[in-house]
Amino acid sequence: MTNETPSPTKLFILLTLVLFSLMPVIELHAEGDLPNITSLQLSVGEDGNCTLKVDSRDTEEAHKRDEKVKGEEIKLEAFGDAKVNKLDDGRLNVIYDFATIKDATQLFPSFLNDQAKKQLGQSISIDEDEGVLVLTPANNKRVNLPLPRMLRPPFTVRIDLLGHSEGMFQLTASPGGNLIATSLHGSKTPEKSASVGDIRVISRSANSKQLNSLLKVNHQKAELRDYHFKVDPEAVKNNAMLGIGYFGDLPIAVKKIEITAKIPPSFGIALKQVGTRIIAQQVVDGSAAQKAGIRKNDVIVAIGDKKAKSAKDALNSFSECELGKEVVLKVQRYGKDRAIKVIPQ
């Protein structure tokens, strides 16, 4: 947690509470003609160009992968039982396949406290018989799941569903506190202005309450479509947090979650600067730093061969480290110099 985005818990609560209030798209569907969304994929480029791929074909066809992921398969503790490949461009391809993952808590972000994880565990589970992640709405008919890692563009996230034709399904990204929110509307969507099959994308800047409509279309039954829109390139420069949410009466099932992105290394250290000293203000329990022996109030002197001249400089040095590759942190504790080996996750 070398935080470039402040208070990720508050950011996720804020972005998942957004209810869309755009003008309706008038579209009528016969009872047996409702679009059943089986897969969606959001791609966000460094230049702000975005593509939303939506599939309402049957699951067998929609869940096919065009080709095998090219890259080196690696094992990183932070991703649990997910399959991880390091691509030639340095990005990671991470696939959470719930036919093989048995523990839903592997998806819980480390920044959540124990109470938040316990509460989330009441709504998130894995059905081993079906091989799916199950999101069960709480009493308010809402369930939200922040995905476990921050990431940077260019990134792609793909969600394979057993089907969605009721309620409202959301996929959100919050780079640097900015909001990009995608919503799929079914027959029982809570959005009064939305029609069955509506797909909407909105944005909101970190310092504004104004919602901007980026996309508003109506998706039909049994079709695969790409929808294109653009966001401000400045809005996607920072680390982004992803989340999925659902509003409805019945549980919804997720077959796979696939993420391809630059994923910054996580040390699990929050820093503060006091004069010229860079101090570990907090060390997250279970983090790479805590496991290596870094303690609260340790003074960070250097990250590898780069001296920590300021908190910002130290954060930049942390972010340049390679995920899963050992780095030596030089610290001072009680006036004594120490060299501690850490493997960021």
From TrEMBL:
InterPro entries for the chain: PDZ, PDZ_sf
Family annotation (Pfam families): PDZ_2
Domain of life assignment: Bacteria
The PDZ domain, residue ranges: 265-335
Protein name: PDZ domain-containing protein
Native organism: Gimesia benthica
